[in-house]
Predict the 3D structure of the following.
Amino acid sequence: MELVKWRYRNPYHDRRHERERMFVIGSHTVILDQQPSEDISLHQNTGFLIWDGGYLMAKFIAERVHVTDKSCLELGAGSALVSIVAHLQGASRVVATDLTEYLQFMRRNIERNVPSQSIEICELTW
């Protein structure tokens, strides 16, 4: 296995300034909104962006984890990319959680990509 910095191989790297992002994961295309802001810190606005780690987790689930007929819980779902991919990969139950201020944003992204009742959305401070 070779070690190469992620930014050199990631076609989605550093696109945090874009309002809409499209991801092709497996046979699915997922289109998500994000809300770029200059005021991003560990304690504010992190849930409005799609982070490289979320993309990596979604891709990992699509390519290496068998979630068919399993329950999946995403803590701090933000844009809900990972939850959407888990649903598309056949998870029987998906719960996406985050702070109150991100729930409507998360709901819009979910409804844009899958039937709205297919993923449960819950407030959770963790």
